[in-house]
Design a protein that fits this description.
The chain is an alpha/beta fold and 925 residues long. Helix content is 44%, strand content 17%. It has 29 helices and 33 strands. The protein has a four-stranded antiparallel beta sheet. β12 (270-272) and β13 (279-284) form a beta hairpin. α1 packs across α24 and α19 (598-607) crosses α20 (619-643). The radius of gyration is 38 Å and the shape is elongated. It binds one RNA strand of 75 nucleotides through α12, α20, α22, α25 and α27.
Length: 925
RNA sequence: GGGAGCAUAGCUCAGCUGGUUCAGAGCAUCUGCCUUACAAGCAGAGGGUCCGCGGUUCGAACCCGUGUGCUCCCA
């Protein structure tokens, strides 16, 4: 077989992926085998592959490939999320480039464009996952707006509405003025932003004033001293510190803390709102933090959540001065007959208004000062726009009640029925559930599941899966003599709610609806695959998605949705910064795959990815992966070269020790990585396989069985070497699928259908524990001896191949017998003999408790050796002292477990024995 | 402001129930080698106040308290 000098990933990768798919290896249908199911966290349909996906999906692929090789019916379901805000924004932008505005289109026209866009560009990411080698069952590709899926979402909306869990109401919501929609709390990202704190004076209403609401010239209200208090002069204004002066025209009160001595006497007094000259009261509420600003807070119930609550508590009016775009709106001010200045603000953007209004208030002399201020500001996760708190009519889910129905949502995680990896995230989960807020599920968008509520001309509505049912329902309600339902109105005029549902309101059904568990309940597929086995996802969507899927599981299937959740950390760059477009530190993944090969990319990501921690991405990891691929390729080449040599049959244990030893190492690591993978320590497992291949197999084993030039190779060993390499490729396959498949086919001729992807992992020729330990110990001693001899050679300035004669202690002859043949070859010794004490003019060295030595014709220099022995002696003396001290400590003897004492005694005896040998060696020098 | 977590070699991290000659791995560094699978390699070596302080214990990287520094989540 001719092999190229190096492995060329690009050719092999395309070839094998096509072959796997064509062979149907990734397709799964229910059968008698146990299922291992993973549903992909559906990437946005607008998405392109980035490092986060790469990490996520590589992990899933490793788990699913390994499960497949362990005899499970492995099923990994691909798909995409319709991502209403992100997609709608993309489509709107695309239309804008064509000169079309969304407002000029009907809903149907817009959706037609959106679908066209989706068919054309959506799901690029799924193609990219193929490049990465992901073994997804493409026949099952799902989309959260597929017909059945859409109906499933509508169905559960109606169901939850009928159960009283979903309600409609006027509430403060997080408003994104950029996309003109409400957002759930989870979609708001708090950021620290440099802003200013404006100190604004609100003049007291002049008691002499005849008409406080008249457009008095505010300049007459310049602060003067009045004497409300006989002792202290009091200014005739109250000063308020605000970061949001643009909302001043919506102010309805000033609030102070009732315990605040400064303002105690002012409660109940009236002041005038600048510019608009509205008269408002000073009220008191515990909520106000006396430490912040001036201790006086302006209350704008229309534009702040907390203000809104205070407003409700104190029965204050709500005056909305901003429209859906975040522009100033005068509609709600018209009753007050606003002056020209106020009217001139109409349509002004909130941030322009902030500047303008500050100027205008300053012109009235009512700005005391402006300070720099760092504040937390909510921004939209999707558009980045600063969030406005806005009162609007929205649909909500009553999460407290819902959770009350399903306390298992919390307990299943806390008692590990659903296992979180890392477990520390259980705390986060617990904390969120205990402080859960209602979920705003409506969005003012068109791309998504349209809310199935139908309204009559008066705004009275019914909730039903479709118009027909809605009409029937409406008629029924009329018959019940409910006066809000008007039988006079034509039911044909029922109009569906314009808004659509939050994307997550569809994603939370993902693990069941990809198997049509909602749209076709209890079908054979969902019964077989659900609950799924493992979920792999980012920590950032633990609330958005994971928690809600668990709730959905209990509500709709009375079951957990998955057994294990593996949370990946965030991918950061080498300096620990988040990957972001702005920083430009997001690598081009497809470029990297082209450059290094998909296997190397997978390797590089996994080797640096400790379980549950953030991943610091560094291209050197990919380089290491590429070099590893090269190493594998070279080992393959060597195997073929050795195989072409003349074969020699010799089954003596001396000749086959290497194979016996490696087999046990292979089994040992196999068992150990099984445990690692169970615990999701994939990085650890990969490191172990890497080291097993590079160090144990290539550096030790292949060198041990390699015959000297022009000599035949041991038949048994070369056969085993091929076998072991194949097993190693199987172990590595889930991590690096392409090169292992390529090598699998280069090792032997394979029949059709004999591919590593569908091969099975197994433990072979497992010895008893005792035998295994003996063999592994012997291998260990062999390695130590070879290393020690190499070390001594370097220190003695001997070349690796300068001839030596090796002497080993006769007391250990039986133990050492199996390894001396290999030892002699690897240490280039002309002879090995067993002696009772070191021969003259030999160089001695210690291997464990064995005193070994060799002689050579060359002049030897004992000073270095002496130094080393003395160093070791000193260390051992110190060590012995500490052990003896411990053993002579009565309390230690009393309290320590017997096996610990035994170990200490053994340590002491070993040290004494070694010291004796060292002394002897030193005397010989 | 509330909560959670982290701190071990130059870097990234392992280190299980406190006890094995336990202070580890990989990368990086240094030294020597063109040894015929691989110089993209081989062989060998050095490198530490386990963040500071205090406590519990016969015994602490590990448990407790405290200080410092960092990260994340929530408001």
């Amino acid at each position: 077989m001719e092999l190229s000098k190096n492995y060329i990933p690009q050719e092999a990768e395309n070839k094998w992926y096509e072959h796997w798919v064509k062979s149907g290896y990734f397709s799964s249908t229910p059968n008698e085998k146990p299922a291992y199911t993973i549903v992909i966290p559906p990437p946005n349909v607008t998405g392109v592959l980035h490092m986060g996906h790469c990490l996520n999906n590589t992990i899933q692929d490793i788990l699913i490939r390994r499960a497949r090789m362990q005899g499970y019916n492995a099923c990994w379901v691909p798909g995409t999320d319709h991502a209403s805000i992100a997609t709608e924004a993309k489509v709107v932008q695309m239309l804008r480039e064509k000169g079309i505005t969304k407002s000029s289109l009907t809903r149907e026209e817009f959706l037609a464009y959106a679908w066209e866009w989706k068919e054309k560009y959506g799901g690029i990411i799924l193609q990219q996952l193929r490049k990465l080698g992901c073994s997804l069952d493409w026949d099952r590709t799902s989309f959260t707006m597929d017909d059945d899926y859409y109906q499933a979402v509508i169905k559960i909306f109606v169901q939850l509405y009928n159960d009283g869990i979903i309600y409609r109401g006027l509430r403060m919501v997080n408003w994104d003025p950029a996309s003109k929609t409400a957002l759930s709390d989870e979609e708001v990202i708090f950021k620290e932003i440099d802003s200013k704190l404006y100190y604004v004076k609100y003049p007291f209403v002049n008691s002499n004033s005849k008409n406080p609401n008249s457009n008095t010239d505010p300049s007459t209200l310049n602060p003067q001293l009045s004497t409300t208090n006989s002792q202290l002069p009091t200014p005739n204004y109250i000063m308020v510190a605000t970061t949001r002066p643009e909302t001043i025209l919506g102010d309805v009160a000033i609030c102070v803390n009732p315990t605040d001595e400064r303002y105690k006497d002012w409660i109940g007094k009236e002041v005038i709102v600048p510019i608009i000259n509205r008269t408002i009261k000073i009220i008191a509420d515990e909520y106000v933090d006396a430490e912040f600003g001036t201790g006086a807070l302006k209350i704008t119930p229309a534009h702040d959540k907390n203000d809104n609550e205070i407003g409700r508590k104190h029965n204050l009016k709500t005056i909305d001065t901003l429209d859906a775009d975040g522009k100033f709106a005068t509609e709600q001010l018209m009753d007050e007959q606003p002056n020209e200045l106020v009217m001139s603000y109409h349509g002004m953007d909130r941030f322009d208004l902030r500047k303008k209004i500050v100027e205008d208030i300053a012109a009235l002399g009512l700005i005391e000062k402006i300070e720099d201020y760092k504040g937390q500001v909510g921004t939209s996760e999707r558009t980045g726009a600063i969030i406005e708190s806005r009162l609007s009519m929205q649909w909500f889910m009553d999460m407290k009640t819902f959770l009350g129905k399903h306390p298992e949502t919390l307990s299943a995680v806390m008692n590990d029925e659903i296992k979180f990896h890392p477990a520390k995230l259980k705390n986060t989960y617990n904390h969120w559930l205990e402080n859960i807020k209602d979920w705003c599920i409506s969005r003012q968008l068109w791309w998504g599941q349209q809310i199935p509520a139908w309204y009559d001309e008066n705004g009275t509505f019914v909730v039903a899966e479709n118009l027909e049912t809605a009409q029937k329902l409406y008629v029924e309600r009329c018959k019940l003599n409910d006066t809000t339902y008007n039988p006079e109105l034509s039911t044909l005029n029922l109009k569906q709610d314009e808004d659509c549902l939050d994307t997550w309101f569809s994603s939370w059904l993902w693990p069941m609806e990809v198997f049509k568990g909602i749209s076709h309940p209890n079908n054979a597929e969902v019964n077989y695959y659900y609950p799924t086995t493992t979920l792999v996802t980012g920590q950032d969507i633990i609330f958005f998605w994971v928690a809600r899927m668990i709730m959905a599981g209990f509500e709709f299937k009375q079951q957990i949705p998955f057994k294990d959740v593996y949370f990946t950390g965030m991918v950061r760059d080498k300096q620990g910064r988040k990957m972001s477009k702005q920083l430009g530190n997001s690598p081009d993944l497809l470029g990297l795959i082209d450059q290094y090969g998909a296997d190397a990319v997978r390797f590089g990501i996994m080797i640096a990815s400790p379980a549950g921690n953030d991943l610091l991405f560094d291209e050197s990891g990919l380089e290491q992966g590429k070099l590893f691929g090269n190493k594998l390729w070279n080992a393959l080449k060597l195997l073929h070269i050795l195989n072409e040599k003349e074969k020699q049959v010799d089954d003596t244990s001396e000749s086959t020790f290497a194979s016996l030893w490696f087999e046990q190492r292979l089994n040992e690591v196999n068992i150990s990585i099984e445990q690692d993978i169970k615990e999701f320590k994939l990085s650890e497992a990969l490191k172990k396989i890497y080291s097993l291949i590079w160090d144990d197999y290539c550096s030790w084993y292949l060198e041990w069985i390699k015959p000297p030039q022009d000599q035949p190779i041991n038949q048994y060993n070369i056969e085993k070497a091929f076998f072991f390499f194949e097993e190693l490729m199987k172990m590595l396959h889930p991590f690096m699928p392409f090169i292992t498949e390529e090598i699998y086919h280069s090792l032997n001729d394979r029949k059709e259908g004999d591919d590593i992807t569908v091969s099975q992992l197994a433990i072979h020729n497992m010895q008893s524990i005792d035998e295994r330990r003996t063999i592994l110990n012997q291998g260990d001693v062999l390695q130590k001896m070879i290393t020690s001899i190499r070390d001594v050679r370097i220190k003695q300035n001997l070349k690796p191949k300068d001839e030596i004669e090796l002497q080993l202690p006769i007391a250990y002859q039986n133990e050492l017998n199996p390894i001396i043949k290999t030892l002699q070859k690897q240490s280039f010794a002309t002879s090995v003999s067993f002696v009772s004490e070191p021969v003259e003019k030999s160089i001695t060295f210690m291997v464990d408790k064995m005193q070994c030595s060799f002689t050579t014709e060359k002049e030897i220099d004992t000073t270095q050796q002496k130094e080393q022995l003395e160093k070791e002696r000193d260390y051992l003396n110190g060590f012995l002292l500490s052990v003896e001290k411990k053993l002579s400590n009565e309390r230690f003897i009393q309290n320590a477990k017997p096996e610990i004492i035994e170990i200490e005694v053994k340590k002491k005896n070993d040290a004494i024995e070694k010291l004796k040998i060292i002394e002897e060696s030193l005397n010989l020098l």
